[in-house]
Amino acid sequence: MLGIDLVPIPPLDNVETVEGDLTDAAVQAHVKSLLGVVNIVVCDAAPKLSGHKSYDQARAIALGEEALHFACNTLKIGGNFVVKSFQGTDFSDFLNETKEHFYSVKTCMTQATRRGSTELYIVAKNFTG
Prior knowledge:
Elements: E1 2-5, E2 16-19, H1 25-35, E3 38-43, H2 53-74, E4 75-86, H3 91-99, E5 102-108, E6 119-127
Parallel strand pairs: 1-2, 3-4
Antiparallel strand pairs: 4-6, 5-6
């Protein structure tokens, strides 16, 4: 298992960590060289919020799209992808883009999500390649 974050991740048993930005091509290449082809990609990343809803939502979608691109270049056929996202402008386009690469795509909100939040997760199963 491997974790990527902008800040150092405290050591965890059986987890390798990379301090870096998932949107950086060099970080993606380094991670791919460490992992090869994988069964699942989980992205719980979110941009630092500015308080401007439309700007923050656009940045969240862009981050999700980058995670999807990474997943499509890293997953084995039949693999799965989970990504945090936020409902709003461009969300349906991102959801549809995800559906182009997986047989099953659903959304869910966790019980921990704050009331009134637009945060949700896209759960995509069975990567088609």
